[in-house]
Amino acid sequence: MPATNVSKATRDQSHARVFDLAELSLRELNQALHQLTPGSNETAWEVLNPKGSHSVAVGVDQPVAIDVRGSVGYYCGGMNAGGTITVHGSAGPGVGENMMSGSITIKGDASQYAGATGRGGLLVIEGNASSRCGISMKGIDIVVHGNIGHMSAFMAQSGNLVVLGDAGDALGDSIYEARLFVRGKVESLGADCIAKEMRPEHIELLQGLLDRAGVTDVKPSEFKRYGSARTLYNFNIDNADAY
């Protein structure tokens, strides 16, 4: 493997390690992040001039804080395991895909399938999210300050999707045991997804998620809960039209 010139990375006044992608390659950034070892004192990172680059800060597996100063392309923060990633802009498709732990915050909008297959951690989108947000989620928590597009939470297995705005068509289609909380209007529900009672334990859970996402001006009582009717777990000829 050819040597990389990570020595061009600098430090700012807060002692963060600064990677300017106008001068260094994305490969050099991700390689430096992957070379971190437990207990490293390089806990603060700043990425300049991402200019829509794809796969920024993928595979982070140490508890470091990464501030990306601009918008990113697809798969930013994929497979994150313990990092705290903040994108000061918008994100392309697949942000936080298969995230394991840690957090990702998008200050702008997110494109389609945000948080897909995520197994843990917290994904916060302060703008809107496009179609298929939380598709096949497996334990991740997702909080969207704005609206989400169609087919969101498709085949969502576990975890929580919180939407402060509206939801598009076919919300929760073929959902398993994930919990969906929507404050605004739902265009339509997908197969086997139904409205459910908001019990005290759900109010408590939702308040915790809003607190973690930095939402202070919204009450859990303003949301409706949706989840699985559990009619598609096993094939039943009476439900054939829903498959």
UniProtKB/TrEMBL annotation:
Organism per entry: Mesorhizobium amorphae CCNWGS0123
Alphabetized Pfam families for the sequence: GXGXG
Domain Glutamate synthase alpha subunit C-terminal: 62-193
N-terminal signal peptide: none
Record lineage: Bacteria, Pseudomonadati, Pseudomonadota, Alphaproteobacteria, Hyphomicrobiales
Gene Ontology MF annotations: oxidoreductase activity
Record's protein name: Glutamate synthase subunit alpha domain-containing protein
